Amino acid sequence: MNISRLVRQAQRGNKEALLQLILAEQDAYYRLAYKYMGNKHDAMDAMEDMIITLYEKLEQLQKREAFYSWSKTILVNHCKSALRKKDKLILIEGKQESFIANLTEVDPYLHFESETDMKELLSKLNPRQREAIELRYIHDLPYQTIADMTGAPIGTIKSRISQGLVKLKSTIGGDRYENDRGEITRTQADL
Length: 191
Fold this sequence. Notes:
Order of helices and strands: HHHHHHHHHHH
Distance between the termini: 53 Å
Helix content: 55-70%
Domain RNA polymerase sigma factor 70 region 4 type: 119-168
Largest sheet: none
Number of strands: 0
Radius of gyration: 19 Å
Protein name: RNA polymerase sigma factor
Keywords: Sigma factor, Transcription, Transcription regulation
Pfam families: Sigma70_r2 (PF04542), Sigma70_r4_2 (PF08281)
InterPro entries: RNA_pol_sigma-70-like, RNA_pol_sigma-70_dom, RNA_pol_sigma70_r2, RNA_pol_sigma70_r4_t2, RNA_pol_sigma_r2, RNA_pol_sigma_r3/r4-like, WH-like_DNA-bd_sf
């Protein structure tokens, strides 16, 4: 799929090209919206708002190859706006009643045990560190995209991620390991 070509076609009014671009990343959009909104219905509403904004403002996109980072930034902004309207805090942690209430076996994006464990670990971080780590490692977004989405400088994003990882490592007893791959050091192996 040639992203630049599809974006160019969509900018010229081809709705099918825009639809093709959105459908190619629909799972990533849903997971991102769900992380912010905490339930399926609000996530879908945020995605609908994103699609409308994409349709209305697509001609403003100058770097066609940056369509996905641009569209994800729009999605995050819609999520944050919806949360502000509902007078909710931007929480991406898992100790929410609505999270557990919305779990169903039909939803392929949720794995209860691993999600719960990960959310409990991430709840130990401050909201900005948690957001940066989730966007980087769960949604696999580059630093620059995260900086654009959050409005923070790229150095600040790297710092939040680094400090958050240090905190997570100490929380899970990460000092036992020699490196981030989980290899046990020789002194530990000798014990």
